[in-house]
Give the backbone structure.
Amino acid sequence: MKTIDKIKSNLSVVKLLIRKLGFFGAIKAVKEDILFEYINGIDTLSAVPTKELGLENSAALEQCSRYVPSFSSCVRDILDRLKSKIDFSSGNFVDMGSGKGKVLFVARKYDFKKIIGVEYSEGLHNICENNIKKMGMEKRIFSIHEDGSLYKPNPENIIYYFFNPFTGDLLDTCLKNILCGDSPFEGYLVYAIPHDSHIFDKYANEVDDFRTGHGVHVKIYKAKENIIC
């Protein structure tokens, strides 16, 4: 019954998947992720409208996207593609706009030093922390409750993952913080569903453009050598 309730509460997500992946592709994706939740007793699948994120700043609200989880196979496709480009064990993975932590739990299967989520919504952050505890991953996965545009990068961060979490000025400021600091960033920026790729183009060079097995459009970037900030 719980599985049926999850599907009913996420009809918009299911409809989107069917449109993008076809009926059988959508069923496979949903089955995989619902099973993951059921086995671990966590909550990552339920979508949350933007107006329910608890963001009081109207400007931030307008530039933030609703919470929709990345699906496991999509994240794996991206990370598997990056494995040959960078040594994961050399640093940290960061999900900007990490929501309930779905991407973090997929990334745990790879040998990053730390797996970090940055989430502005207190409600989503609290759910993520509870999920981390249920998974018993408190020593390796960390959720930071913070405006992503204010996040101060750790020099050991080697991959930043953006599943279209915010747009406009928030995204611009976030990228400046990552790429225009005292220490040059030599890792990779992953941008899934790249609606505002022109903002990335200001600070970074596109090195890959592809679609995952489920058809999600992804661009991968590296910082420009001579960034104008």
